[in-house]
Structures are given as C-alpha cells and as structure tokens.
Amino acid sequence: MNSRLSSTTIAKLPGTIAIPRYDRTTVMPGIVHLGVGAFHRAHQAAYVDACLADDETDWGIIGVSLRSPDTRDALAPQDGLYTLAIRDGAGEQLQVVGSIQSLLVAPEDPGAVLAALTDPRIRIVTLTITEKAYLRAADGTLDGAHPDIVHDLANRGSPKTAHGFLAEALARRRAAGTPPFTVLCCDNLPANGATLHRLLIEFAKLRDALANAGDPALASYVADDVAFPSSMVDRIVPATTDADRARIAQQLGIEDAWPVMTEPFRQWVVEDRFPAGRPAWEKFGVTMVEDVGPFEDMKLRLLNGAHSGIAYLGLLSGHATVDRAFADPLIRQFVDRLWAEAVPTLPQDAGLDTSAYTAELAARFSNTALAHRTAQIANDGSQKLPQRIVASALARLEAGLLPEHLSLVVAAWIAACAARGGTLPEGHFTDPLDAALNDLLGRNLPTAEMAAAVFDLAGFAKGHAERQRLVEFVATHLACFKQGGPALAFAALGIGDKNGTAE
Ligand code: CS2
C-alpha cells in the first residue's frame, strides 16, 4: 500500500468513513492554533470541522508546532487531512477531519508564524502547548530568567515561546491598526485564560522595559484591549501507536501517517468573550458560559487528579494502561476515596452534579479500547499536580479536613520518579525538573526531609500556611512506599482490608 490520504485520494475511501462534506478550497483561515498535537486534533479541530460543514467557512485553522516538525511532516503531504478514530468497547468509528488548512513549524520559520498571526483574517488564537510551556516560576509568576524568555525579549522578530509570538503579533497588529485576536487557552491550567493573560502582561512589561524610545507600551494594551476567555477542554487522547497506524491504513485502504485515537466523550466549556467574533460552537455541543471556573475545577480535580493518581499508582503496581490500573480493586477503591476527598473542595453553589460526573469518569477510565498509557499521563507531574491535587489538599486542610488520599498521590509521584532506573525503565516518563529531581532523589534523605525538599523544588504550596502539614502527610505515605510499595501505602489507609472495602 503506498497511496496516502490527501485531497485527491479522499474520494476513494470506503463509504463507512465520514469525510468533510464541504469544499475545503473555499475555506478561509480564521484561527491560528499553537501546539497542533493529537489533543488539538481530537478536540478543537473536530468542533471547528463541524462548523465548517455548517457553512461557517471563514474559520479554517493554521496549525503551528512550536518545537518539532513531526506533525507538519506527517500532515502536509496529506493536505492537512487526518483520521480521527473514536474508540470504545462497541468498536471504532472513523472520521476524516478537514479543518486544518496548513501547518507551520515555528523554529524553522518564525517569520511565517508571525505573518499568520498578523493576518487580519485571524480572529482567534487557540493554544494547547502543555502546562510546562507557560514557563511559570515556582511562585506562579512568569519565569523571566528562562533562557527562551530571555531569547524572546532580545529577538522580537524570531521568538521561540508562545509568549514571544503572541506579544510580537499583538504589537504588530496594533501598529497596523488591525484589531487584536482573541486568545483562547485550551490547556489544563486553573483559570487558564486569566493565567495566560497575566503571564503575557508580565512578558509585555519586560519587553516594555527594554523598548526603544518612542515604542508604544504593550503591557497596558494587552491588559485592556485583548480578550483571554478561559475554557475547559476534555477528551482522552492516547498517543497513536504503530499498531493504530497499521489498523487504520487497513480500514482506509490508504495510509494516514498520523491518525488520532480518542473516545466518544468530548466536552468544551468556553467563556463567551470574543470581541472579534467566533464560530457558532454552541450549535455543535460547546457550552458557552459566563464563568468557566467551576467546570474547570471539577475537571482538573476529579478527572485529571484521578488520572495522575491512577498513573503513578498504576506504574508502581505494574499496570501499563489506565483501564488495567482502574480494574485493580485497590486502585479503584483508592480513586473512589480520592473523589470523595476532592468533591467538598469544589464550589458548592454552581450546580455541579459531581455524582453523575464521577460515574461517567469511571466508565471512561474503564474504556479498554483506548489503552491509554499510565506513562503518558505520568509525564510532567511537577507541572500538573499543583492544580490537580495540591490545591484540593490545601483547601481541605484550610477547612479542617484531612487530605490523606490526595497527599498519597504526591507521594506516589515521588516514589514513581524514584523508581525510574529501578523497577521502572530509565526515562519511562519525564519531567522538566528531572535533572534536579533525580539528583535529589539519589541523595537518600530521610523521608520528611525528602518530601520537604521536593516541595521546595517544585514550588508546591509555596508560602501557604498549610504547607508544612501537607508535607507531613506526604512524608508519611512516602515512608510506606519505601518500605512496602503501594500495598503498604494502601494498607495504611485501610484499603484492601476486609474493613476497608466497606466504604
Ligand atoms: C491527562 C490528560 O495526560 C494527562 O495528564 O490527565 O491529558 C487528560 O487525558 C485530558 O485532560 C482529558 O481531557
């Protein structure tokens, strides 16, 4: 088989496969997306595809990779087309998505990315660049000392970071009299739009401080004139494997270099602040709201918090995928208790139905067709745990409640990091703090000191009145992990006991 998915070959696909039912040649670009990975292609790009098919033809997507050329290399020969495989126990449904019109690789040609961002037809910039790419220091402010930030402040026309691209593009649009685009953050951060807004204002202030005489100040413009709605995005997207590629090629009858695997469930809740306009997303299942905060907290603390717990406990218990870990009765019981611990930390007056939500999560985590790898979720724990686990643990302590299960996830993260190169393969998952973390973990400190040092390194609970108490909980669990692995850590909570199973 040597023929490849493209605008020409798409006509030959079997009739069971859904394909774009609109004329892609008449679509105009309206969105630039930074971070065109698998998640974007299973989520925002699929929603936009539905809008394009409904005659909203001026919202095509220009996909930008900030680092690697891999996505462009796979999709450019396919005219941006790719297959979305929606999988569950009932089978697999295939859909070819056509909303990505072109792909750019920032390090190869930053000027082309700036040209796209300053095109007046672009009215929205969406982002999925992962937590670590926001370049926050341990206290949450912009890490002004990060080499890429330093680079971007000195090289405005050839930035590397999202901050550098957004700031330069907004400055150029302003100078040209082009209205600003709306910036729509789609990463798993708390108050993600407001967070990015704050970081970009900080970046613009640093830029302004270095500006030449006569340059108009950018920071106040970014603060006052650019909208950064927050959004909650949700769809589970495991990394594509070679077996997936082979199976999809078999079904298509032609090759797709990078199909995307996902689940039937999808959710997008978006704050409705788009001064430059937006697609009619609400027609296709997107919930447009005034305040996304409660939805975001529920998703981060219940879905992502449990995911991280399942990932680290799964890895320590020998489970390679989420469904297998979740089928382990000890882990399952732990997750139920974790949810029970996190639920009271959520806004009580926002009408959230947490029971229905966790029941649905349990079904999603049990999806055996996804084979979502625990090692994939385990990546970047230092960037993920603050909003998924630490925030709810601190909220409980403040309210006079114990965070026994939440704190165990932090200990499991530390134990899993320490197990790399031992019971887990070297580099089995990675973290931006790995160099310092591995050095620390190799020092064989007493558990209390170790837990405190990891908190310092990762900035967990920095400056919080309950920090020390949380460190103590984590240290207690860590001692169990060291002595007897997850079995002992669970047993200490009564999980797995005859008495413990009653809850
Ligand atoms: C996961 C998320 O990898 C991870 O850390 O928890 O990517 C998760 O699958 C998505 O947020 C689901 O919407």
How would you characterize the overall build of this protein?
- This protein has 503 residues and is an alpha/beta fold.
- The protein has two domains: 10-289, Rossmann fold; 293-492, Orthogonal Bundle (N-(1-d-carboxylethyl)-l-norvaline Dehydrogenase, domain 2).
- It is built from 19 helices and eleven strands.
- The strands form three sheets. A five-stranded parallel beta sheet has the order 5-2-1-6-7, sandwiched between helices.
- Strand 3 and strand 4 form a beta hairpin.
- Helix 10 (293-316) packs antiparallel against helix 12 (329-342), helix 16 packs across helix 19 (467-492) and helix 18 (447-458) crosses helix 19 (467-492).
- The radius of gyration is 23 Å and the shape is globular.
- The N and C termini lie far apart (55 Å).
- The model has no long low-confidence stretch (mean pLDDT 96).
- The structure holds D-mannonic acid (CS2).
- D-mannonic acid (CS2) is lined by residues 188, 234-236, 304, 307, 376-377, 384.
Low-confidence blocks of residues: none
If helices are DSSP runs of H or I spanning 4 or more residues, what is the number of helices?
19
Content-based structural category: alpha/beta
Gap between N and C termini: 55 Å
Radius of gyration: 23 Å
The fold-level CATH name of the largest domain is Rossmann fold
Strand content: 5-15%
Instruction: Specify the CATH homologous superfamily of the largest domain.
Output: NAD(P)-binding Rossmann-like Domain
Give the total of domains. Answer: 2
> What oligomeric assembly is this protein in?
single chain
Helix content: 40-55%
- Compute the number of strand runs: 11
**CATH architecture annotation of the largest domain:** 3-Layer(aba) Sandwich
What is the ordering of alpha helices and beta strands? EHHEHEEEHEHHEHHEHEEEHHHHHHHHHH
User: What spatial form do the alpha-carbon principal axes imply?
Assistant: globular
With strands numbered from the N-terminus, the spatial order across the biggest sheet is 5-2-1-6-7
